[in-house]
Design goal:
With 129 residues, this protein is an alpha/beta fold. Helices cover 42% and strands 19% of the residues.
Length: 129
C-alpha cells in the first residue's frame, strides 16, 4: 500500500536564514516544503490546489503577509494560512483574521508550536471540505 502523500507547505519569508531553518524544521517533521523570498514569487506559481498550508511572514518589503493572504483568498485558494511575525501589534490578529488567516505566531518561538499549528490547520481545512 503506498504511503500517503506528505502534506505540502509553502513558506514565504524575505529572510533566507528563517526560510532555511523553517524548511529544515518542517521537512524533518515530514512535510514537503517549498520556499519563497517574497509574495510575488509565490503568486507566480501558486494554484488553487496542491498546497495544504501556507506559512507567511508578516513584515516583508514588497507586500506584507496579510495582503498576500488576502490575494490568495481572492484567487479562491482556501488552504489555511499561518502568519508569523517578529513585530506583533494590537491589531494584527484582527487584520489577519479579516484576510482569512487562522493563526498568528510570534518569531522566534516557532518550533513545536508551528508544527502543531500546521497539522491542526490542515486537519481543520480537510474537515471543512
Amino acid at each position: 500500500m503506498p504511503s500517503p502523500a506528505k502534506p505540502t507547505v509553502y513558506v514565504v519569508d524575505d529572510d533566507a536564514d528563517v526560510l532555511g531553518s523553517l524548511r529544515f524544521l518542517l521537512e524533518t517533521d515530514g512535510f514537503d516544503v517549498r520556499t519563497f523570498r517574497n509574495g510575488a514569487a509565490l503568486l507566480n506559481v501558486v494554484r488553487s490546489t496542491g498546497v495544504d498550508c501556507f506559512v507567511i511572514d508578516y513584515k516583508m518589503p514588497d507586500m506584507n503577509g496579510i495582503d498576500l493572504a488576502g490575494r490568495l483568498r481572492n484567487r479562491d485558494i482556501a488552504a489555511p494560512v499561518i502568519l508569523i511575525t517578529g513585530y506583533p501589534d494590537e491589531g494584527i490578529t484582527a487584520r489577519a483574521a479579516a484576510a482569512g488567516v487562522r493563526h498568528v505566531l510570534l518569531k522566534p518561538l516557532l518550533d513545536d508550536s508551528l508544527v502543531t499549528r500546521i497539522r491542526g490547520a490542515i486537519q481543520e481545512g480537510r474537515s471543512c471540505h
